[in-house]
Task: inverse folding
């Protein structure tokens, strides 16, 4: 067999890699709402080609003019992969596929029909003998146009094994080069499916003239497991979709199957030709174009796949990656493991992340950052790099002595109430001061309450807000500038700025105002000393 998956008479056990048959553009596109136009399909096909996918099932040409055009364009543009078109066991379908594939460098027609009694009786409305004849005739007709014909035995997982063996032997004799064994409804268990593939090897006399392919659905969450069980028992082609998209619960996941083979070659005995460093980028491309999000805990390509929140796990990964990671993130296109800081993260994880960001803090400053980090993590659950940088800016990058420290604020406001704020502030002597005031809005009210405690005359001349991160729980940064008319260091009308961050914009505003006031007080103190 050559790398296209076409048999050249050698036994399948001689092949050194598993053939990857990607059906993202056909079965994957059948996900509700996942329709792709021709340009989008071509873009995905180009990435799949660059990944060294063996076979691309580009569409179902008879189904629509759009699908016909997509198969046609992909056949013209993609030269390093087998390009496959799906058909039913009908001459009209096969004619359409042959026309769409006529410019392909390595064309394949994929035809077939059901083999389970429920499909034969209720879907095809025929008999076992009638279905067998239709299948054999379809293969013979397809062979007029291409040398490479793949035959699918739909619903093989629920078929009578003896009838399935007879069908496979007959279609191989008719010229099929690949026989596809689908678990169409996701019904079988890995043990059952593995035994089915093993039974085919042992009971189909001419199976050495074809490649066994497996196509598993995920209705019971077993698509990847069943696919790999097929490989263990003699299948040499796997049919997969990027992100596991597809009808109902989806298909066997491209990235899961490929990385299982790569990571556990010692167990499965085979690898694929796939450039796995492109797995993460193609996952994001397909997700973007289909508008189907990748769940965070999705294996291999989910945002949490290489994230470590537990302090114990973080400590282990920082000491030796393989303690909690069996896959190097770089192998799938993720630049590196991401230490997700949360309320459960320990001091070690935080110190390491700060060091990566270039912050080397003394013990006192680190403790201030750590306690503030815990406050943010309790509200936001996970603390991102930009959040952490803002925390350090607030707590560690203060190059003056803090005279007053804001401990708590409480706000009451609404469209039918007077905005009122109460503040609790620790003074320079350690004494606690509490006071309240009202204003035109919550920020005005909290600034007025702070003024009642500190009593430092000033004018607030600038107030701005920006989101540091995205999402409803984003940390916001407030910048405030105040101006005093009393001379400081010999200069009149001096401006002092302050910044503050928090999930609550009013709290961030209070922090920023306190920062500016403390800066003003520190400057005035230095002026008096001079």
Result:
């Amino acid at each position: 067999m050559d790398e296209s998956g076409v048999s050249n008479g050698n036994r399948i056990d001689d092949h050194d890699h598993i053939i990857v048959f990607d059906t993202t553009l056909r079965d994957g596109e059948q996900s509700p709402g996942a329709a792709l136009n021709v340009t989008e399909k071509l873009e995905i096909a180009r990435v799949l080609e660059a990944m060294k996918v063996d076979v691309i099932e580009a569409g179902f040409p008879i189904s629509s003019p759009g699908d016909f055009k997509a198969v046609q364009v992909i056949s013209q543009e993609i030269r390093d992969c087998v390009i496959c078109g799906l058909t039913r066991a009908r001459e009209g379908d096969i004619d359409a596929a042959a026309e769409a594939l006529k410019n392909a460098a390595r064309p394949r027609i994929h035809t077939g029909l059901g083999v389970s009694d429920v499909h034969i009786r209720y879907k095809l409305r025929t008999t076992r003998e009638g279905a067998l004849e239709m299948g054999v005739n379809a293969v013979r007709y397809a062979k007029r146009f291409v040398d490479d014909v793949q035959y699918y035995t739909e619903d093989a997982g629920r078929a009578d094994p003896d009838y399935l063996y007879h069908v496979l032997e007959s279609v191989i004799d008719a010229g099929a080069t690949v026989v596809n064994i689908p678990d169409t409804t996701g019904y079988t268990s890995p043990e059952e499916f593995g035994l089915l593939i093993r039974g085919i090897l042992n009971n189909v006399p001419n199976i050495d003239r074809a490649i066994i392919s497996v196509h598993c659905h995920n209705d019971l969450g077993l698509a990847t497991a069943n696919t790999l069980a097929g490989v263990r028992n003699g299948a040499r082609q796997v049919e997969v979709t990027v992100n596991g998209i597809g009808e109902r619960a989806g298909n066997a996941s491209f990235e899961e199957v490929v990385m299982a083979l790569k990571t556990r070659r010692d167990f499965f005995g085979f690898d694929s030709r796939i450039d796995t460093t492109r797995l993460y980028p193609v996952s994001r491309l397909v997700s973007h174009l289909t508008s189907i999000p990748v769940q965070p805990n999705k294996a291999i390509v989910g945002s949490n796949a290489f994230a470590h929140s537990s302090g114990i796990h973080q400590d282990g990964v920082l000491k030796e990656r393989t303690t909690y990671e069996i896959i190097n993130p770089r192998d799938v296109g993720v630049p590196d493991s991401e230490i997700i800081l949360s309320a459960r993260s320990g001091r070690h994880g935080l110190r390491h992340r700060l060091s990566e960001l270039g912050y080397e803090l003394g013990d006192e400053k680190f403790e201030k950052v750590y306690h503030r980090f815990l406050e943010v993590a309790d509200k936001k659950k996970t603390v991102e790099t930009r959040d952490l940088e803002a925390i350090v800016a607030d707590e560690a990058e203060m190059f003056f002595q803090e005279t007053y420290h804001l401990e708590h604020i409480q706000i009451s406001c609404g469209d039918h109430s007077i905005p009122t704020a109460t503040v609790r502030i620790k003074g320079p002597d350690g004494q606690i001061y509490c006071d309240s005031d009202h204003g035109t809005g919550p920020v005005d009210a909290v600034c007025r309450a702070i003024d009642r405690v500190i009593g430092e005359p000033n004018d607030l001349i600038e107030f701005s807000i920006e989101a540091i991160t995205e999402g409803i729980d984003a940390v916001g940064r407030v910048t405030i500038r105040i101006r005093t008319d009393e001379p400081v260091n010999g200069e009149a009308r001096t401006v002092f700025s302050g910044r503050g961050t928090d999930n609550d914009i009013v709290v961030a505003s209070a922090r920023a105002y306190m920062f500016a006031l403390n800066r003003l007080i520190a400057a005035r103190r230095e002026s008096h000393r001079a």
